[in-house]
Amino acid sequence: GDIVLVRPGEKIPVDGEVISGSSTIDESMITGESIPITKQPGDEVIGATINKTGSFQFQATRVGKDTALAQIVKLVQEAQGSKAPIQKLADQVTGWFVPAVIAIAITTFILWFNFMGNLTLATITTVSVLIIACPCALGLATPTSVTVGLGKGAEHGILIKGAESLELAHQIQTIVLDKTGTITQGKPGVTDFVTVQGTANHNEINLLRLAAAIENRSEHPLAEAIVQYAESQGVEKPLPEPERFEAIAGSGVQGVVSDQLIQIGTQRWMDEFHIETLPLHGQKVAWEDAGKTAVFIAVNGKLEGLIGIADRVKPSSEAAVKTLQRMGLEVVMLTGDNQRTAEAIAQQVGINRVLAEVRPDQKAAVIQSLQTGKNSLIQNPKSKIQNRIVAMVGDGINDAPALAQADVGLAIGTGTDVAIAASDITLISGDLQGIITAIRLSRATMGNIRQNLFFAFAYNVAGIPLAAGILFPLFGWLLNPIIAGAAMAFSSVSVVANALRLRQFQLQSNRF
Predict the structure, then answer these.
(1) What digits encode the pLDDT tens for the residues 248-283?
(2) Residue 141 and residue 495: Cα distance in Å, rounded?
(3) Measuring CA to CA, which residue among 52, 357, 289, 336 is closest to residue 188?
């Protein structure tokens, strides 16, 4: 019930309801909505989100463990606690190896002493068996490769928390990508700009200069995007100073520049001033169908232009998605954003399956249903595969439960601390190409481990019978204990040397 004052740039401390003032709130880390949301009296605000522009007061409604953020943290803890460890074959075999070797050595001594009556022969073969048997090779096979693999990943900006994550990554079948901040850049930018031909200010640079002069006085994220776009298009500074300026929450901004009334805002706001928007209405509808925000520009009560603003796709996203699909992985988009915007972004990058408007508390359940194939939220009649290995890639607080629930959670390094803490792998650069690199590294590491285990098993399977004197009855040949010792040392060296080959692995070309 406490009343809290929030100033521009501050984080909202708890959940509540606005009682006075207005502002725009960046809720992307919680809801996945890429465009900041206008809040007015009566609207709910969420703790941990960021106040962008105005000051307002709100009444706290949920605090402590009842806040949306606390519920997300609880989901993360529950998901992390449910993960089962991988049972490693090498560890199991090594546990039985020493008792088995001792048993073989005793059996060897008994057989040679009983059948040949030769204590020297029995002693030599027994000692050779004990010397040549090398649990070290088996013990080194996995951790050496994993250690080199983890180091190789770090060199390429991929921080892997443990061997389990590195091992599981090569088995991934489904990659789930968050939209905002993962596929996209996470902040609005101007994507399109058109003017009405035949008007007084139809010159693009001139109109952009007027628009930027007004928006330069606003703190709204869309205003910042327009000013940055104007600068990128060659609008020179300093911008003219508005004689008057007014911001109308949820509608737009207006002011006077060079004796001209400039109005920038929504169609609804333009309609209030009886400004005819029909010349650009078709363009506005097309942009909104593509998931963009359309902003009209009017000068002296007459429509002059239209700006399209959206959260732009990262340059590497489309290529990364196509590469993942070529690798045989199913790529899914999971977002809290609206269906239309999500599908527009998915179409740009080539993702066919979109799960939109998913609340943070539902994301972990969606991942679980993708893993098992059983959930009404994501029914997919074409998919009958169950028990899939699922990876989740995200950057926001709202992604943390899903990152923890996934078999492999990959966090964008530019994301929130909560997401990074809940993940298994962190991609420092924020580039989706890091997913491909991580999977290739895992595949190369697991291939290297298999080679090491093969060498270690083959060495022991071949070496122990030779040391036990299996060739003595046929050829009268016994393995010298000195040679057995050298062979044992060589087996460990060969395993380590093979693991070090990973340092030469080219992750981009996927070859040594």
Answers:
(1) 877 888 999 888 899 998 888 899 999 998 889 999
(2) 6
(3) 52
69 three-state secondary structure: helix
- Return the closest-CA partner of residue 256 out of 272, 240, 232: 240
Comparing CA positions, the residue from 139, 146, 141, 142 lying closest to residue 162 is 146
Quick one: tokens of 493?
Answer: 């060296």
Domain 157-184+314-439 is of which CATH architecture? 3-Layer(aba) Sandwich (3.40)
Q: Which tokens go with 386?
A: 């169950």
Query: Would you state the pLDDT for residue 297?
Result: 92
Centroid of chain to Cα 376:
25
How does pLDDT run across 30-55, given as a tens digit for each residue?
665 667 788 888 888 888 888 887 78
Q: The domain 187-312 belongs to what CATH superfamily? A: Calcium-transporting ATPase, cytoplasmic domain N (3.40.1110.10)
Q: CATH classification of 3-66 is 3.40.50.740, yes or no?
A: no
Residue 84 exposed, middle or buried by CB count within 10 Å (0-12, 13-18, 19+): exposed
Active site residues: 178
Q: Give yes or no for residue 97 having a pLDDT over 80.
A: no
**Radius of gyration of the chain, Cα coordinates, nearest whole angstrom:** 32
Expressed in angstroms, the distance from the first to the final Cα of the chain is 63
* Helical residues (DSSP H) of 82-203, grouped into ranges: 89-116, 119-132, 135-155, 163-169
**HSE of 43, CA atoms in CB hemisphere, 13 A:** 16
Cα angle: 360, vertex 364, 369; to 5 degrees: 130
Are 203 and 299 a contacting pair, CB within 8 Å?
Answer: no
Contact status, residue 424 vs residue 162, Cβ threshold 8 Å: yes
All structural domains of the chain with their residue ranges: 3-66, 89-146+443-504, 157-184+314-439, 187-312
